[in-house]
Write a sequence for this structure.
């Protein structure tokens, strides 16, 4: 196990030992692949914001469960009884993990991750809150916390970020307050990301919740990026105005790929009426001409056969992190993030997006950057092909936010550009490279990224000569190719099983 960031905060030796043990068992950490130099190199996985690696402890729990697998909603035979019990436990584990009051809140699972959850929230609340036809969100949002509100509500207001000393910071709370005042009596809810999936900047959700509640609106948090990095306390805050009404996230962001999306909400918001999705399991009785939805939550919101294995895997991941303590994880990652910002900021050829003053705008999970003058797709390709560093590029399903930040950076670099020139240049170059961290990311990983970027900036001409653009907007090495089928494809895996069986 490589040396992790050393925390300046106190944490028990037991928690730190658990953290190292769990972090070191992530599946795929030791994966070696061929690179353009002809050698093989261990992959450095810096794409956890898109999807985290599965933890070994999660896989172990699923391996132990799988022989007993059966459908839920029955306790007649042993497998069904076990599956029903563990599936229910997964719901309770979700409530514990986000600090939700079990008497007042419910958790239910949905398909399509956070996107499925946000669509369910928007569709349900648009029916339950007639006359409140406005939603306030921010320009920082992933499309999953924007487009569902646009579909179900008449007006969606996008609050801008604050202007920090060097770039954009967290969402502008004063702008949210102005929007609440301007739409008094019409705002159903304020929905913001807890942590930006582009910059990793953490939003002050408690303060925003207090504003929303003061104006009779609900507070919804997109916790897709927050859930694996920052402690969440949904209920029972010292100031009740800081409590969160709805939290939405997905298991593939917290070390359980294949798990469903999750909605945690105050019970009364989903009680009564007919649920958005109907089918098996969510009714008490059905006649030819009518049906009676069950009043029991979460059943009424989980029509059909659920993703039982995925939910149990998510429960295992949450339980493992709960045993370590999210405070410990956050402390560790705060130092890792500061190291990354320090290392990358030292090179003037690297543009980092979002204000870098972490004392004012703390970050978690991710940071985005560009090598100045180099297309983001080329930078990402070089990091992959020559260093086996897995990063993501483009706009990360946050087009308006990325467009604004790229424009801002271009204007800062060349103040002589006209507004039209800025817009055209920003559209042509729109996109970034994102490095994102997980529980398994080490100091050595961050330092290797910094060294790689220094080399790319210093030997720009060499690297540019090795690539050609593709019609899809990517860059492809002229001679080196990685063929996925050389390491895995489903057909060969199945054929191999038949040969061995």
């Amino acid at each position: 196990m490589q040396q992790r960031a050393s925390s300046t905060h106190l944490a028990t030796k037991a928690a730190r030992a658990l953290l190292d043990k769990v972090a070191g068992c992530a599946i795929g950490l030791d994966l070696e692949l061929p690179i353009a130099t002809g050698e093989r190199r261990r992959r450095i996985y810096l794409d956890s914001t898109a999807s985290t690696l599965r933890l070994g402890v999660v896989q172990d729990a699923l391996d132990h469960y799988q022989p007993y697998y059966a459908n839920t909603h029955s306790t007649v035979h042993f497998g069904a009884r076990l599956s029903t019990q563990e599936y229910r436990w997964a719901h309770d584990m979700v409530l514990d993990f986000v600090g939700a009051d079990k008497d007042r809140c419910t958790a239910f699972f949905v398909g399509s991750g956070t996107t499925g959850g946000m669509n369910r929230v928007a569709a349900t609340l648009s029916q339950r809150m007639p006359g409140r036809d406005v939603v306030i969100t921010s320009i920082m949002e992933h499309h999953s916390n924007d487009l569902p509100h646009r579909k179900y509500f008449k007006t969606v207001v996008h609050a801008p970020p604050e202007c920090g000393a060097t770039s954009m910071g967290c969402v502008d709370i004063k702008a949210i307050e102005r929007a609440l005042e301007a739409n008094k009596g019409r705002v159903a809810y304020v929905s913001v990301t807890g942590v930006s999936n582009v910059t990793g900047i953490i939003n002050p959700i408690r303060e925003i919740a207090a504003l929303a509640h003061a104006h009779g609106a609900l507070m919804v948090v997109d916790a897709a990026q927050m859930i694996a990095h920052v402690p969440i306390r949904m209920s029972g805050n010292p100031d009740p105005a800081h409590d969160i009404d709805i939290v939405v996230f997905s298991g593939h962001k917290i070390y359980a790929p294949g798990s469903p999306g999750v909605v945690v909400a105050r019970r009364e918001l989903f009680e009564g009426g007919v649920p958005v999705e109907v089918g098996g399991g969510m009714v008490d009785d059905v006649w030819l001409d009518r049906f009676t939805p069950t009043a029991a939550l979460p059943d009424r919101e989980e029509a059909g056969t659920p993703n039982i294995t995925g939910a149990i895997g998510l429960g295992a991941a949450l339980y493992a992190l709960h045993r370590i303590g999210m405070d410990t994880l956050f402390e560790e990652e705060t130092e890792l993030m500061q190291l990354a910002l320090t290392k990358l900021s030292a090179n003037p050829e690297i543009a980092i997006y979002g204000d870098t003053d972490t004392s004012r705008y703390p970050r978690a999970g991710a940071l985005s950057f560009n090598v100045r003058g180099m297309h983001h797709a080329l930078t990402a390709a070089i990091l992959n092909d020559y260093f086996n560093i897995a990063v993501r590029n483009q706009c990360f399903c946050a087009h308006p936010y990325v467009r604004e930040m790229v424009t801002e950076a271009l204007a800062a670099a060349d103040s002589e550009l006209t507004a039209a020139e800025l817009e055209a240049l920003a559209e042509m170059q729109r996109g970034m490279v994102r490095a994102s961290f997980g529980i398994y990311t080490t100091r050595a990983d961050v330092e290797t990224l910094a060294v790689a970027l220094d080399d790319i900036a210093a030997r720009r001409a060499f690297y540019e000569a090795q690539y050609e653009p593709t019609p899809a907007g990517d860059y492809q090495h002229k001679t080196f190719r990685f063929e996925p089928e050389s390491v895995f494809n489903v057909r060969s895996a199945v054929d191999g099983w038949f040969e061995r069986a």
Q: What stands out?
A: The two ends are 36 Å apart (CA to CA). The chain has two domains: 13-49+325-395+431-486, 59-323. The chain has 15 helices and 21 strands. The domain at 59-323 is CATH 3.40.640.10 (Aspartate Aminotransferase; domain 2).
